Amino acid sequence: MEAIAVPLQTLRWQGRTQVFVERLDEHLDGVELPLVRIPAGEFVMGSPPHEPERSEDEGPQHRVQLSEFLMGRTPITQAQWRVVMEGNPSAFADKPDSDQRPVETVSWHDAMAFCRRLRERTGRYYSLPSEAQWEYACRAGTTTLFCFGPTLTPELANYIPADSYSNGPVVDPRMETSPVGLYPANSWGLRDMHGTVREWCLDQWHSNYEGAPTDGSAWLRDNSGDETSRLLRGGSWGAAPGLCRSACRGLLRPDNANDGGIGFRVVCLPQDPSLNS
Description:
Elements: E1 10-14, E2 17-25, E3 31-38, E4 41-45, E5 62-66, E6 69-72, H1 78-85, H2 108-122, E7 125-127, H3 131-139, E8 198-204, E9 230-233, E10 249-252, E11 262-263, E12 267-269
Parallel strand pairs: 8-11
Antiparallel strand pairs: 1-2, 2-3, 3-6, 4-5, 6-12, 7-12, 8-9, 9-10
C-alpha cells in the first residue's frame, strides 16, 4: 500500500515527530485534531509468557507487518466531540478544563458514528484503529511492559498507583480523567496511550491470537455487524498499572456506554480503504 498523501491543512515537525492538523471548526477558537504520522514497520504483538499479570488472551506472540498511517496524538477530547457530534456525554463535562479532557462514556457505536461524521466533513478515511495498529503505535519500537520502560509512575500516566507493580510507586490516585497531553509522549509523539481512558479498537473480541491477521488489519468475523464484544486498549484513570500495559486487552459489548473510563482515538488511513474496510 502506498504511503499517505492526504493534503491536510497544516503540517509541522515537533522534534522528530511529523504532525498533521485537521481543522474541525475555524469559528470556535480553531478546534483542531492533531494527527501523528506512524511509520510503516514490523513488530511482535502480544506479551511473553513471563510478563507480570499477563493473561492468556495476550498470546501467542506473533509478528505483524503494518503500512503507514496517521493516528490521533491524543484521545478525542470533549471539545472535538462537541464540534463533530454536538452534545457531550462525558461524566466529567462539568470540570473547568473539560474541553481538554477526553470524551468518555461513549459506546463503540458512538465512536464509529464520530468516525463516519469526520469522514463526511473532511473527505478523508477516518476509522478506529485496529488492535494491531493500536499496540504498534503504543509500543513505538519498544518491547517493554510500557512504552516508557518496565513500570509506570504518576509522572508518566493517569492510572491507579495504589498497588505496587514492577517496582512502581504507591501513591494516592487522581481518580478522574485529566487533560489530554498532560503526560509525556512516547517516542513517536503519541500521548495518553497508558491510562486516562481505555480506548475502543475496531476489532471484534477473540480469546487469543491463534489465526490473527499479520498485516495490521482489524480482526473481524463474517458477521461483523453483530453485537460481538469489541476490543479496548490502554487502561484508564480507574485501572491498576497491570491493566495499562502495552499488551493488555479488554472487551465490552459495543453498545456499552456506561463507563466514565472509556474513550477512543482515531486513525486516518490511505484513501483506498482496503485496510480495515
